[in-house]
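We emphasize that the prediction below concerns an isolated chain of 164 residues; any contacts that depend on oligomerization or on bound cofactors are therefore not represented. The input was used exactly as deposited, without trimming of termini.
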Amino acid sequence: MKPLDVGIVGAGFAGAAAALFLAERGHRVTLYEEALKPEPVGAGILMQPSGLSVLADLGLLSGALERGSRVDALVCRTPAGRTILDLSYRDLFDDWYGLGMHRGALFELLYGQLAPRGVTLVTGASGVAITLRQPAGPSRGSSSKEAPSCRARWVAVSIWATST
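Result of the prediction step, given as a token string:
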């Protein structure tokens, strides 16, 4: 496949992972983030088997395992001791498990790979003017003098609303 210029808006976990996948496949990727200095938001995260398989495909699973704690089951009981949830990952598949980790550890793992894998990170992009390029011809789309410009043939938007 011919390499594409790809713009991704939103540099959270999904945006960073998508950028890494696309760069790994030879595309020129620019990742746009509103924050001037991206950093993790929140405390902990429980990675499920599907998320762990994404990290494995990116070659980052061993790094995640070093930074987290394996979770083999989720058990919840009432104060009186009655079980209301008892989920063992192994009940589904023998090799499945979850991974509890701090959001900062996952953030560092993904962001540490952006530059080495050729992803361009543009920060402070609070409004990105997206201009889609046709294969052979002029650009089309919106433009703004205040917003960073994203000239690409393919654009993905991966935005998570912030809460206060």
